[in-house]
Every structure is written in C-alpha cells, then in structure tokens.
Amino acid sequence: MEISSKENTQFFSNNTVLPVDRSSFKSESSASKEKQSCCGGIKIFLGALSFVYFAKALSGSYLKSTITQIERRFDIPSSLVGVIDGSFEIGNLLIIILVSYFGAKLHRPRIIGAGCLIMSAGTFLIAMPQFFMGRYRYERFPSTLNATVSISPCQQEKSQTPLSALEKSQAKINAGCEKEAGSSMWIYVLLGNLLRGIGETPIQPLGITYIDDYAIEENAALYIGCVQTVAIIGPIFGFLLGSLCAKLYVDIGFVDLDSVTITPKDVQWVGAWWLGYLIAGVISLLASIPFWFLPKHLLKPESRKDSSTSSEQSKFITEDNKDQHKSYQQQVKIAEMAKFLPSLKNLFGNPVYILYLCASIIQFNSLIGMVTYKPKYIEQQYGQTSSRTNFVIGLINIPAVAFGIFSGGLIMKKFRINVLGAAKLCLGSSFFGYLLLLSLFAMGCENSDVAGLTVSYHGTKRMTDYEQALFSECNSGCACSKNDWDPICGENGVTYVSACLAGCQASNGSGKNTVFFNCSCVGILESPSQSSSAVVGPCQKGNECPKMFLYFLVISVITSYTLSVGGTPGYILLLRCIKPHLKSFALGIYTLAIRVLAGIPAPVYFGVAIDTTCLKWGSKRCGGRGACRLYNSSALRYVYLGMTLVLGMVSIFFSVAVLWVLRKRSSPQDETFSANGERGTCGTKSREDSFVNKDHLIQTTYWPEKETRL
C-alpha cells in the first residue's frame, strides 16, 4: 500500500513538474545569468584589488630594505631616515577620514584607481633625486682612484704633492660645494613617501567594503582572505628586489664600473636603490588600469538583497516608500552625530578596550622600531652586506610572520577559543616572543679593531669610546685629516681610518688592487724595526661572527613566528569586547592611535637612539656631519634590542591587566561573557556569537602593516 502510494505521488509529481519547469524556465535562466554576471564582476574586482595589495606591500617593504642606502646616499643620520619612513603614515592620516566618509558615496573603483596613480607618482618621485644630484662620491685616497700622479698617503710636506694635483683636488671640492644643495634632495624622498601614504588610503576601506557589498555572503570572507594573503606575498618580493638592487652600484649605467674602488662590503657602498622604486612605480601604475573600467555598482546576488549582512545602504531601502526612507536616513544621520560624544565616552569607558589599546600602541612601537632598523642592525652587528641582509629578511623572516598569523587563526578555529582564551593566547605569544628576544643579547659580535676608535695604535682595547685618539706618534709626521673615512686593513688585522693615519709612505697599484707599503703604524704591532703593508678596505669581523649570525637568524625566525601568533587572537579580543554598533568606530580609533602614536614616532626616536652609538661620522664636502661610518657594536646591540625589549615588556603588563579584568568579569559557570552595554564588558551571547562572524573572519587576520612585522 505504501509502495503504490509512493508510486502515485511520484507519477503525480512527474506529471506536474514539467509545466512548472516550462513556465519558470525564463526566470531561472535570467537568475542564473544574473548570478554569473555578479560573480564575474566581483572576481575581476577581486583580481584587480589583489594586485593592488601586492603593489602597495611591495613598495612599502622595498622602502624598508633601502633605509641604509638612502642614509648613505644623502649623507643623513638615522633619525632623519626615521622621519622619512614615518611620512607614509602622515600622508595616510591626512585624508583617511575624507576618503572613508565620502569615498563610499562616490565611484569606489575609480577612487582606488586614482589612489594607485598617486601612489605610483609618489614612488617615482622617491627615485627622482638620483637623476638630478650628480654622481655618488665616496671618500677615497687619490691613488686608489686610478690617478695618474703617484701621491704618498703620508704627506709630510705640502711640496710632496704636485701643484697640479692639488689644484685638481681643490677644484673637485669646490665643484662638490656648488652641488651641495643636492644633499637636501632627501626632501623629495620624504614627499614621495607622503604621496604614497595618500594614494594608499582608499585601497583598504573602499576595496574591502566593495567586496563585502557585492560578493555572495558565503564567499565574502574567502575573497577578503585571498586579498590579505597576496598582501603577505608582496613584502617577500619587495625585500628580494631590495637584495637584487643592493648588489648593483648606485650609478650603474652612468659610470664605468671598473673605476669603482669600493665593494658591497664597504660601509660607503650604495646600491641602485632608485631602480627598485622605478619598478615598484610601474607595478602600481599597471595596477590602477583595471579600476577605470569597473562599474560603480555591481548586481547584488539574490542571497544578499534581503540578508542581514547586506550593506548599510540597502538595509532600510523599501521600494514602496523611498521618500520616507530618505527622511529616515537624514534623521538617522542627525541622531548618529548627536550620539558621537556619548559613543566616544562609552568606548573609552570600556576598561578592556582602553587597556588593550595601550598594550597595542606600546607593542607596535616596539615592533615598528625593530623592523625599520633591522637591516641596519644586521649589517653593522654581523658585517653583512645590504644585499644579503634583504635576502634573508625577505626569504626567511616574512614567511615566518605569515605562518604565525595563519597559525593564530587556525588555533582559534581548531579549539574554538573564546574571548578569555584569546587574551591568554595573545599574552602567551608576547611573553614567549620577547623572552626569546632576550637571548639575542648574547648573540652579538665584538667591535672591529679600528685603530684610534676601538683599540689603541698599540693594540690595547680602549675602555672608553668618547676619548678617541686618531693621532699617534706613528703618524705624527703626516698631515692627515681626522674627518676622512678611507679604511685600509693592515697585515696585523687592524683597520685604520685612512692610509695617512696608518703612516703609509708609498702605494702600488690602483683602484681595488691598491697596496700600501711602509706603514709605520701597522709596523708597531708587527716589529718595531720593520714596517708593514695594508690593503684597501676594512678588515673582516672576527671568526665567531658568522656563527653568531647563524644563531641570530634561527632565534629571529622563531621570535617572528611566536609574536605573530598573537596577532589574530588580539584582534578578535578587540572586536568581541565592544558593543556591536561601536565596532566600526572602535576599529577606526584603534587604527588612528596605532598610526599616530606608533607608526610616526617609533622610527624617529629609534633612529635618534641608534645615532648615539656612532663612533665615526662621515663628513660632507663642504663641512657638516654626514652619515655614520662606524657604530659601536656592543652599544648598538644594547640600544636596539634593549628598547625593543623594554617596550615589549611594558605592553605585556597591559596585556596582563586585560586578562585580569576579563577574569574578574567572567562568570564561574562559563568563561564566555554576555555583552553588557552599560558597563562595556566583553562577551558573547551564545556559542555561535562567541566565534567570529563571517564578515569579520578575515579582518581579524589583518593588523596594521603586518606585512613588515618581523
């Protein structure tokens, strides 16, 4: 009986379904076409936006890789380089409010395209000084410059130097003084980076909201995740590009490379820093093209038209009464403006939010300062070239950061960690990360033996750095300048600031192959009755330094991974500890605070502190202090790692306070919290709410400038 009933039902449905299919064929076909059109448009936008994220991440990381190159090229201290680095954040802050408010009401793809053009123009502007300030001049003794006249390094009498050679040398100095205005062209680098910040502003807020508005609900988080993944790949290529350009001489294509007497290991070496900016500018320019052909609006998928996750512009729209909707929108705007101050008071009255904000600001000061000057630290501490330093950072450190961020999100999902668990994970990540960083104090190299700076001319270690004695009895008969930096390496393994200060009486060869003979100061350590020779360039660091560098790399990678694991849980903690209607406002305040109180000042005061460890400053042609030529390795290690560690430990104290407040407000039965609007406590109403909503899934994996957090 049941079988016959099922057969009748099946027969009936088979007979009646055909007419329905025929009558609805056109509507289903049109819906399918609409879905395909929508998906096709959003995927094109997704590809274009991913390319833009790659372009901006590449140019930003390339700037980090050229910090030391810019410092040497323009003869400026580290503190000024820090100002240049922070100008990106300043440019971003100048228009972020205008773009965020008015951009959503205008043609978003074209605004992003215009931002890419501005970003490209800024990147090109950074490279322009190379073509206007003349060739790069480094300090070298005339005999190493392929000179035709043989000149004794130790000029005991002025008559030893032929008059024609002196006149030519003085003429070159005067010519250099006439072009000394070129040294102020670092301002163009600052302005270019400022433009980069302005152009980058609309990419994230307008691009992400465009995807969220027009993507199918279940695909929105996946699409945004793809964009953020590409943003992590960009810095890898940025540092690798920096490594490649650092190998090439700064004036490649303009001078005969055989006449260059310095090598990439020399502290005066400047790579083709400008070449990478031209490449990055072209990439940004190409990235802007697709956005000019994308529509202002895409067809909304059927699943989003009546969804609660649809954009705010379509939430209150009713086809029956648009006039009432407009008046209602105006009333809502007035009400929102009236509630701004109470919302601000409510936000800052939330102890968890304030404590986490303070912890983040201090931690980002630590991380931004550490990342900005990490290439300089590796070069000066371990004697590595700029090319190798950038290669190591790009190929090892950044993938560790990306894997750490991914691991943090995976742990949150795998173990379904609640708000209190996220706070614990964030605290544990910071604690163990900075604990590992503490071990780097023992993995440094000793100062190079430089006569008159780190050791005496008799080979004894100097106890103080400020009592520098470049002049000694062995070079007292030479007319030497203490401002020169043209290092040579003696047979005794000691570096001398110049051949003159080494007391060298003669030289043979030219360029990189120059050999100095009868160096009286070198002979002191060898034999009092015998003079010795020296070659061009500083001596290498100690034998233990390569091993220490290997240890540093291992600990650095583990530290980068450990610190990055806490990024995602921390962001979830931020989102879950505020009222739902204050999330956007809270995130805006959070981003603003990080940029103003960490992104701008951290590179500056880190640079000022690093400048205090300089032992030998270069001098400009017309007087004045140039870039640092030699740092005190021990002092640099304590200042660089010490500031990073102290700031990190202070942020941990705030993180502990966050955890204490959360524990205090938790219920004994369940460690999840319910959202209490009056008191601003953290919470989740249910197991589903305690986890991350789809529209926030990827936002939690993005923390400001994560691409360069090493």
What's the quick description here?
Helices cover 60% and strands 4% of the residues. The protein has helices at residues 2-65, 67-73, 78-102, 108-127, 163-178, 186-200, 203-214, 217-247, 273-288, 302-305, 312-315, 322-338, 340-348, 351-372, 374-382, 386-414, 419-438, 520-526, 545-565, 567-576, 583-599, 601-611, 633-665, 687-690, 694-697; strands at residues 488-490, 495-496, 506-508, 515-519, 532-536, 614-619, 625-631.
What does this structure look like?
The protein is mainly alpha-helical. The chain folds into three domains: 38-140 and 184-299, Up-down Bundle (Growth Hormone, Chain: A); 334-445 and 544-667, Growth Hormone, Chain: A; 447-540, no CATH class. It is 60% helix and 4% strand. The protein has helices at residues 2-65, 67-73, 78-102, 108-127, 163-178, 186-200, 203-214, 217-247, 273-288, 302-305, 312-315, 322-338, 340-348, 351-372, 374-382, 386-414, 419-438, 520-526, 545-565, 567-576, 583-599, 601-611, 633-665, 687-690, 694-697; strands spanning 488-490, 495-496, 506-508, 515-519, 532-536, 614-619, 625-631. The strands form two sheets. The chain has a five-stranded antiparallel sheet with strand order 2-1-5-4-3. Strand 3 and strand 4 (515-519) form a beta hairpin. Helix 17 (419-438) runs antiparallel to helix 23 (633-665). The longest helix has 64 residues, at 2-65. 47% of the residues are buried. InterPro entries: Kazal_dom, Kazal_dom_sf, MFS_dom, MFS_trans_sf, OATP.
